[in-house]
Amino acid sequence: MPLYKKEAVYELIVAGGGISGICAAIAAAREGIKTAIVQNRSVFGGTASSEIRMHIVGANCHSSKPDLRETGILEELLLENKRRNPYASFPVFDMILWEKVHMEKNITAYLNTNMDDVIMEQGRITGIVCHQNSTETEYILYGKLFIDATGHGTLGVMAGASYRMGSEARAEFQEPTAPEQANCDTMGNTIMFRAVDRGEPVRYEKPPWANTYTEEDLKYRPHVDKICAQADGGGMVRPEEGKNQLPEFSNMDAGYWWIELGGDYDNIIEQGEEIRDELLKCVYGVWDHIKNQGDHGAENYDLDWAGMVPGYRESRRLEGDYILNENDVRANRIFEDAAAYGGWPMDVHVPGGIRDLNSYGSKVYNFEGCYTIPYRCYYSRDVENLMMAGRNISTSKMAFSSARVMGTCAVGGQAVGTAAALALRYGCTPRQVGERYIHELQQELMKNDCFIPGFINEDEADLARYADISADSQAENCRAENVANGISRNYLGQINCWRSDSLKAPQTLTLKLAERSPVHQVRLTFDTDLSHEIQPSMIKNVLGRQGKGLPETLVKDYSVSLLLDGTVVGRKEVENNGQRLNRLDFGGIEGDEVRITVKSSHGCGYAAIFEVRIY
Fold first, then answer.
1. Number of Cβ atoms within 10 Å of the Cβ of 371
2. Which of 13, 72, 326, 512 is deepest in the core (most CB within 10 A)?
3. Which CATH superfamily, name and number, covers 4-165+319-343+363-447?
């Protein structure tokens, strides 16, 4: 029995504090929704936290697909991390995630809090029963809407929601690479490790319980300085098709995705502790092989950290009104109710993991471009007030193998949090948001810097869309008018930003409004080089493709002036900007012209702005 009992009431409850849950909670809170986020660990971030330390990948595919890095709240988190955490410490990243959650006035965070039960009334969830280990307190949290961001679909299963596990038969969706027969296999769990060069020889003694591996055992698992194709981050996959094989070195400094178990166990969730123990034997055995079996150049390397929390790839998937499938992914399908997008290859790991050493660890099915994910994949088809975010959304196994990565989960989480706010605002169900308010949802997401391929800014309240736009200078094909063309990134080879021809002197972008109007807010979307990565990582090669600080293309110092009849009536000065999306409030001052003057960038020799919105 708990020593203490408490109750609380919220509009929205998010179960799960990984990247998708964080983005969902922040998105809803910023729309004015009283939100609780319940996380059963002591830190936020899930697989990207210091407990597991996996880097966040997405549609950008380790920079092999230009201009496709995810933006929105995820970009905000990663840019803040780049600004304050130049050496990519995962414990510092934990703090930044904690700060972002706690600084939102409409979020109450419950860390170290496990969800034990669900309260149902007439097929709807009305509350969850939780236990907070650190305070010995039982919490009963009541809400109107619930988001399952647990990864396992735990809340959904407790509530009786339909779900899937394993692979569908090829015939169900006519998926070309699905197996002929359905099965219960999943992709396994991985424990990461980190090694450091001490500058002198370091001895390693294998624990007596660790496994032993020979070079023959690991012939399909490159582990030191070999060029290979990249799967989750730092290892080899079997080349299958397509042009984006994601070249990557597999170094000894950290890894390896292929230290993986659980996919062919009876129950990857129920047997989680057993799988963790077996993974530890694998990790320490692989390190013994690198250090003590042959010359791997590891004489000075010391095992600095090995995780105790495995990263899950796959378990349950909750069913929505639509199940995204392989054909949607391959066709780069644009759905009318698109809410997010993905682009990572369909990356299917062998169920046996490191126990299946006579095969490659994964098959990668590449495709060009990106696809959208329909809003119908983000709410339960049979629990009226349940939504999903993260890897437990409504997909087939093949589509899941692409959509499961954290970048894709993050933008889906922001979409779900925003949709939940609309449902609460209009007093409707999540399904009805899709039926009645999908255009409003899409426009709100794009307003907050979420990219939805195939859609543009159509916000009638945006005064910039009707303005006469000019600039002091503009580079070739980077016209000033681009800042109001509705697309806030380069896409499919089309340049959609204004770029000055230099920054030898401050450069001004001017928007003359169609008529004098009260101006409440100016929103600026800057260039943060969406063709390259900015995520924290333990892998030297991933970090080596990044600069230590913020992207050089990002505007650093600038001012925004509001004018009326040629006279400045409002002005904002910004120094040392570190974000792509900037919101500047002017309080309803009447004006007829907005001037944006860029004084410096974080390293490039020009000013670049993708979008200006004026409200």
1. 25
2. 13
3. FAD/NAD(P)-binding domain (3.50.50.60)
